[in-house]
Structure formats: structure tokens, C-alpha cells
Amino acid sequence: MTVEAVSLRQKNPVQEEDVEEELGEIKLYKIRWVIIGIFVLYAAVSAVQWVQYSIITNIIVRYYGVTPVAVDWTSMISMITYPPLLLPGSYMIDRIGLRSCALIGVVGTAVGTWIKMFSVQPHLFMLGFAGQTVVFVSQIFILSLPPKVASVWFGPNEVSTACSLGVFGTQLGTALSFILPPLIVRNHDNIDDIGKDLSYLFYGVGAVITPVVILVFIFFKSEPPLPPSIAQAKLRLNRSEFSNKEFLNSYKSLLTNMPFMVLSFAYGMNIGVFAAVCTLLNQFILTYFPNSEKDAGTIGLLLVVIGMLGVVVFGVILDKTKKFKEVAIALEVAIALYVMTTIGLIAFMIALETYSKVLVYISACVLGFFQNAYYAVGIEFGVELSFPQPESTSSGLLLAVMQICGVIYTLLLGECLSRFGAFWALSLMVIFLGIGTLITIFIPNILLRQEALGLTAEKNAFLPKNKNRRH
């Protein structure tokens, strides 16, 4: 295996020897980029199925003869299955490691995808729903892994970027989930023609997931032979045998960690609103622009693609400036993104009222950029606030709160849309975002990762500055 060796040898050889003697050798392996690349594919193939039905709600309603609410549930099932499976899923991640969980998750995703391939008959909606359920039960081994993969495989100056890339996979799949169904499945007069289009859609995803299973089996590893950073070296040095008591204590620690819990509620409200709006996007767009299924898909695509740009931009900025470990800076970033997300949703709501597709597209870009950036920044902020608890546990709790909020908001949004119209339904979501902004402001200041690790200024000086140095 080819490696990039990162030397700790700096200007003070005496202190450097103490660090190496205590923690051992630190290396960055080139295969880490293969690992994160596979994870991106893995996450994308799962996420591409999120709004696969709901972005073409009107067509699915015609083909299967079901209600719009039933179609909404094909998206909400991803949110409803996650919270109750969080504890057993996190237990397995900590118990059997990254590789085994990745294999279980990708095989489960493949099985659910294959089930849907056999559901293309007007009377087989529930079979497709069962496949969708299997896919999103398997997602428990995807959503909470980016910070875990990043910290286990990447150096201290790369963690934010790697975490952002992991989130990028989910966002990429979500983007394709918006655009592919409207492009492939047309609202034909003939029901049989709709069935043929649905077959193309489901078989296409099935053709992609199979090689991804093989890639995960061959290349995906739990951890590198040597740690990539002082932080991981310390954790390995102090690592003990897994125990049920320690696992439950980690959750107890998080649930009693006030700053983390405050962030959890704020995070859940923000991303929950995004999930609800995306689930009902087809219905919102068709309310103002009839027969515009393709526009709904394109607007959803922009929400996520521009959002992916925001994820990467903020990930790189936080790595380059090395400011994320400062509480004040972290809070300022989170609050700023929350405020801009709220403004973006207000702009989207007003743009719909103008019946101008151009303004709707522009406002969707603004909303997507800041809301998706908050998605990634919020996860990493949660990891910092909860250190030294496992990354998969802290991010899992954040996502569980988000999923619960997503289900509640989707049901509220759908009810308000049918009773009072799109404007007032979206106004309710703006109110929730405003409350979330206020909650974020009151996140208490605590010592973050570097202080929790007990790293002194002298030892921090040994953090690798040139990843191309070799022993």
C-alpha cells in the first residue's frame, strides 16, 4: 500500500521525541481518498432514492391510484425509520467497525433497490414502498458516518474537507433524486407508457448499486494501520475493549451535554424544514406553475447542487483558517448560516407569489447554498461540542432529531398547503427557522476538541503542516 508519511519532526527535537514515544508514528495513507470516494458513491446511490416518488407525485398518483399523502410517505419513511434505529445502528458501528457496517448498509440498499425493480405494476405500490423502506432502514449505516470516516482516515488539516465530501455524497444523490425522475418518467396519457418509464428509472439505479457493493467489499476498511493524527493516536492509545456500559454512557453524556442538545434542536429545526419543503416541492411548484414537473425537478436539483457548493466552500474555509475549534467563530458561522437560510426561504416564498420562474430559481439557489452548508457545518460543530464521544453517535443524534422534525414539518406543511395554501404553509416554516436561529444564539460556550484532548501549544506545533513530507 502506498502511503504519504507525515513526520512529526519539527524544530524542537526533544519535545518531538516525547510525542512520538508516547503516541507512536503517524501516517496519512493515499488510500484514504479511495475510501472517501467509495463512500461518496455509496451515499449517493442511497440518497438518489429519497424523493424518487414524491418529486413526480402527480404521475405516481395516476399510475398506482394512491393518494398524494401515500406518495409523501415514500419520502417520509426515510425520516420515520431513522430515530428508532439510531441506537442499534450506532451500537453496531461501535461494536463491529466501519467496514462491517458499510457492507451491511450497502447490501441492504441493494436489496431494497432490487425489490423496487419488481414493483412496476399499478397494483404493486406497496411492494415498491417495502423496497423503499429497506433502502432507508439501511441508511442508518450511511448518514452518521462522514465525521467518523473523516476523523479515522484523514489528517487534522483535512478533517473538515473530508467530512464535507462525505456529506457531498448524500447531497449528490439527493440532487439526482430531484432531476432524474422528471426526466425519465413522463406524464403519458397511456398508463402502460408510464410503467415503462418507471422500469427504466428503477433498473437504472439497480445497475449502479451492484458495482458499488463490490467496491465496498474490496476496498472499504475500518481504519488505517497507523493513525493519521495526534488526536487519533491518543484515542488509540487510550482505547479499551468495547462494552455495553461505555456505549450507553456515551449516549448519557450526550443527552446531558447542554450545548450539544441545544445545537441538536436547532439543527433538527433547520434541516427538518429543508426535508419538508423538498418532499412537497412538486406540489408547491405545480400549485403556481401547472404541468411543470420538470421545473420542480430542476429547482430541487438547484437546491442541492448549489448547496453542495456551499458544503465544500465552508469545509475548505474551516480547514484553511483552522478557526472552527474556536467557540466564538463556530457559533458565528452557525448563526450566520441560519439567518441566511431563513432569508432564503422568505425569498423563495415571495418568488412563488410573483409567479416568476426566474425569481423562483434564483431564490432556490440562495436557500440551497446556505441550508446545505449548515447541514455539514452543523454536524461537525456537533462533533466538536460532544468530543470525545464517538462521531457516529453525536452525528447520529443530530440526524435523529432532524428526522423527527422532518416528519412533523412534512405533515404540518402538507396539511397547511391543502387547507390554507402555499404562502401560509411556507410562512409556518419561516417561523420555525426564526425560532431555530434564536436557539442557536444561546448555545453555551464550552471547551472544544483541542482542549478536551489536552493538547498543549507545544504539541500542537507538531501537527503536520506539509502533508507531502516523507520519512
Automatic annotation (TrEMBL):
InterPro entries the record matches: FLVCR1-2_SLC49-like, MFS, MFS_dom, MFS_trans_sf
Name of the protein: Major Facilitator Superfamily
Organism whose genome encodes this protein: Popillia japonica
Any Pfam family the entry gives: MFS_1
PANTHER family: GH15861P, MAJOR FACILITATOR SUPERFAMILY PROTEIN-RELATED
Sorted UniProt keywords: Membrane, Transmembrane, Transmembrane helix
GO cellular component terms attached to this protein's record: membrane
Biological processes per GO annotation: heme export
Residues annotated as transmembrane: 31-51, 63-84, 96-115, 124-145, 165-186, 198-220, 260-286, 298-317, 329-351, 358-377, 397-414, 421-443
Gene3D superfamilies, per database record: MFS general substrate transporter like domains (1.20.1250.20)
One MF term in the entry's GO annotations: heme binding
Membrane topology: Multi-pass membrane protein
